[in-house]
Amino acid sequence: RDHEIMNTVTPIAVLSESLAEDENLDTKAGLATIAESSKNLINFVNSYRSLSKINRPVKRPIIVKELIESVMELNAKYLEDNGARCTARYAATDILIYADYGQISQILINLIKNAIQGESHLIEISAEISSKDEVLIRVKDDGIPITKENSDQIFIPFYTTKEGGSGIGLSLSRQIMRLQNGTLDLEQSDDQMTVFVMRFG
Fold first, then answer.
1. What are the start-end ranges of the H helices in the chain?
2. Are 157 and 168 in contact (CB under 8 A)?
3. Phi-psi bin for 33: left (phi > 0), alpha (psi -120 to 50), beta?
4. Strands of 122-129's sheet, edge to edge?
5. pTM for the full model?
6. Which residues pair with residue 85 across a beta bridge?
């Protein structure tokens, strides 16, 4: 992503040089632009750091029901403040995964956040065991569908459709799942619902 860094650094360099040489240039406006560009650069670097330095997962047995209910409790106020409701459904209450608790929580929190930003009011997290003995955790929402064009791009680092978005949430989540020997995919997105599925082999 060298071009993204250059796109941010270039106006800083140009404006700094202009401010030094041109007495008539509006110094306050120039400094404001430099400050904004610097802030964007810091945000970009922090995002890149998050993406490139994922901690090695510390795996342990996790009861999926307890994990989901903990995430729902942590997000209760955020959901309420945004007029959204989150429910859970389990094919069985004793489903287990072997994974990093904090990292999987982070993925679920990110998917809930994305759903709310997509104007969802109803979110459902479900867990089941597939015919292949995979544990499937699905996050469904009734928000704005992801277009076919965007669905092909959403897992690409730094791609975002949100104003001010970093574009690393889903990419980071997918990388985390790979470290757990699992996958994260967009299973469905239409006028009925959007569904992300986490697979644990």
1. 2-21, 27-52, 64-74, 76-81, 101-117, 148-151, 169-179
2. yes
3. alpha
4. 85-90, 122-129, 135-141, 194-200, 182-189
5. 0.73
6. 122
Q: How far apart are CA 26 and CA 18, in angstroms?
A: 10
In the block, residue with structure tokens 């730094």: 158
Which are the contacts of 191, defined by CB distance < 8 A and separation ≥ 6? 145
Q: Which residues of 170-181 are buried (b: 16+ CB within 10 A; e: fewer)?
A: bbbbbbbbeebe
For the record, the structure tokens of 99 come out as 């994974």
CB-CB contact of 26 with 41 (8 Å): no
199 phi/psi in degrees, rounded to 5: -115, 130
Say how many CA atoms lie within 13 Å of 181 toward its Cβ: 8
Alpha-carbon dihedral sign for residues 90, 91, 94, 97: negative
CA dist list (Å): 104 to 17, 54, 194: 47, 13, 19
pLDDT, average across residues 47-52: 52
- pLDDT tens per residue, range 73-111: 999 999 999 999 999 999 999 999 999 999 999 999 999
